[in-house]
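Researcher: Here's the sequence for the chain we discussed earlier.
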Amino acid sequence: MIVDIDVGNTRVKWRVSHDSGVNIHGVHKTFDDAAREIGVQGVPTRIRLSSVGNASVTRGVETAAAHWGCIVQKAQTTKNAGGITCGYERPESMGVDRWLALIAAWQQYQGACVVVDAGSAVTIDVLDSAGQHHGGYIVPGVMMMRNSLLGGTAKILLSEGFRREVTPGVSTQEAVDHGALLMLRSFVEAVHEELLCSEANAKIFVTGGDGESLLPLKDCEAVYCKDLVLDGLAVVFP
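Model: Thanks. This is the structure I predict for it:
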């Protein structure tokens, strides 16, 4: 049994793969919660780990692995992997989740693409048809933008979710939520349009907890892949 784990800033996502090929997924706020659910599925033979979270979470994964008697394969951003080349001057400074998402997108498409990971922050990375990474962008996600605008406003009661609309809002919260989503969609479309100037067949891959809210995109061929980071782990550690 192989366990893939993606530790982000606000949540832990995991996937269990059995020899039979059956995959079981989960998302939790803490690794302790994830570990309890993983333990129900059986005893892992190895753990493939992507982590941009607190170092204490990584230690928690290593402690659980020792309890289960399995190894931990922790991914790192390198200059080259999976057929692509990192565009960062210092590859190790690039978030490994972004790197793994790029690798997975390249394995699926083998062509130029824009890779979007929409979580608490939204990352947008550009890959050309030769597998060269041209860098990317990091901007606040919808909830982060909403909280920065409305978090200190006592008179506005915020709901936990947000509507996936970009029409003009008819309340202050709607105006902020719809505006933030429209900004992000427009940003992704602009990056894709720029890539199309040199790469006619460039696609868009979208992942992350808020990824589906970015779709559909105007006049763009976009694919939502909920497990892009976990898929990248499977490429780096086959």
